[in-house]
């Protein structure tokens, strides 16, 4: 085989971070053996020998995880020496490493440079975006450490690519993320979409929010199988989200219809042309001047189709979309003073 590529997980699914969106953590939980531990030396030698026996012109060994550097420097040193032992004279060997970047020190940098590794660093852009999801086992953000180590690689002329996981939040700031990484000297950037957990189904799930002092509140997230309601005849779509506002905020609004759309993040668009905006109207049955604490239904509608929060049901054109409202839907609460 002229070109051989091997992807190796030397530390299996083991990782020193607890990233909130980690698809591989979810995957290992859904298999019989969650982790196989650190690759044994005899397994490594068999792998290298067979790969280089098949390779003709090029053989690339790529290391991923989990976090591959958990296998230790000694493992990688032995791996490189093993390739020298079995490599044919005419075969060129390449190495690449995808890492979260937290364990890299001067010794690692020197090793990666000397052996011409291409290093992929998982960095989700700015500190705000990165630390939202990429935290260590103590739930502390890793941005500062990862950026420092990545720039150390650049300083020592190690080839570096940045790998960004695209979430709903980061996608909205993709231009600023790109400019930030470019400003920091990272001109090779890769972007991959965040994957949903395996087997996640439509339903209702608890979500807990906790402060640093340990106080917490539990809310509910409703997972549905469609993000918006479509109007096949008018070829339009509309979506909106639940929100919470105080009595004072409702009463002080100078343009309540507009504010309601803003608070609910209500959006409408043409399915055939996403750049073409759609007018959204708002309907509600409370008097803003007389509103009291409570739960109120609000309908956001486009031409021929109406949508109420938390529904994905389809109906005929002109009919209202029906649903059951929960206490968590739309709250108008008394103002809290301290």
Secondary-structure topology with pairs:
Blueprint: E1 3-8, H1 23-29, H2 41-54, E2 58-63, H3 73-86, E3 92-99, H4 106-114, E4 117-122, H5 127-133, H6 143-155, E5 159-166, H7 168-171, H8 174-183, E6 189-193, E7 203-210, E8 216-223, E9 229-231, E10 236-239, E11 243-246, H9 247-252, H10 256-263, E12 267-270, E13 273-277, E14 281-284, E15 294-295, E16 298-302, E17 305-308, E18 330-333
Parallel strand pairs: 1-2, 2-3, 3-4, 4-5, 5-6, 11-18
Antiparallel strand pairs: 7-8, 9-10, 10-12, 12-13, 14-16, 15-18, 16-17
Helix pairs in contact: 2-3
What can you see in these coordinates?
- With about 350 residues, this protein is α/β, with parallel strands linked by helices.
- The strands form five sheets. Strands 1-2-3-4-5-6 form a six-stranded parallel sheet.
- Helix 2 packs parallel to helix 3.
- The chain is elongated and about 85 Å long.
- It starts with a strand and ends in a 5-residue tail after the last strand.
- The C terminus is likely disordered.
């Amino acid at each position: 085989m002229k070109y051989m590529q091997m992807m190796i997980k030397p530390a299996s699914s083991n990782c020193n971070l607890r990233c909130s969106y980690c698809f591989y953590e979810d995957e290992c939980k859904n298999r019989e053996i969650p982790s196989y531990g650190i690759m044994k030396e005899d397994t490594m030698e068999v792998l290298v020998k067979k790969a280089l026996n098949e390779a003709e012109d090029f053989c690339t060994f790529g290391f991923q995880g989990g976090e591959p550097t958990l296998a230790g420097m000694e493992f990688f040193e032995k791996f490189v020496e093993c390739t020298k032992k079995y490599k044919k004279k005419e075969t060129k060997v390449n190495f690449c490493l995808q890492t979260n970047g937290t364990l890299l020190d001067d010794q690692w940098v020197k090793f990666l440079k000397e052996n011409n590794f291409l290093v992929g660093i998982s960095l989700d852009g700015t500190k705000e975006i990165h630390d939202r999801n990429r935290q260590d086992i103590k739930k502390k953000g890793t941005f500062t450490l990862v950026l420092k180590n990545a720039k150390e690689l650049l300083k020592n002329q190690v080839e570096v690519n940045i790998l960004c996981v695209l979430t709903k939040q980061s996608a909205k700031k993709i231009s600023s993320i790109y400019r930030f990484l470019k400003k920091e000297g990272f001109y090779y950037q890769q972007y991959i979409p965040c994957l949903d957990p395996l087997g996640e189904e439509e339903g209702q799930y608890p979500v807990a929010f906790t402060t640093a002092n340990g106080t917490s509140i539990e809310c509910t997230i409703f997972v549905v199988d469609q993000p918006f309601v479509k109007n096949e005849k008018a070829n339009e779509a509309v979506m909106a989200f639940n929100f919470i506002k105080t009595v004072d905020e409702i009463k002080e609004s100078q343009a309540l219809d507009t504010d309601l759309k803003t608070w609910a993040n209500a959006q409408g668009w043409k399915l055939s042309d996403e750049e073409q905006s759609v007018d959204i109207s708002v309907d509600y049955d409370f008097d803003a001047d007389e509103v009291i604490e409570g739960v109120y239904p609000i309908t956001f509608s486009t031409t021929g189709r109406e949508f109420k929060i938390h529904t994905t049901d389809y109906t005929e054109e002109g009919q209202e979309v029906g649903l059951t409202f929960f206490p968590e839907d739309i709250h108008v609460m008394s103002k809290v003073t301290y």
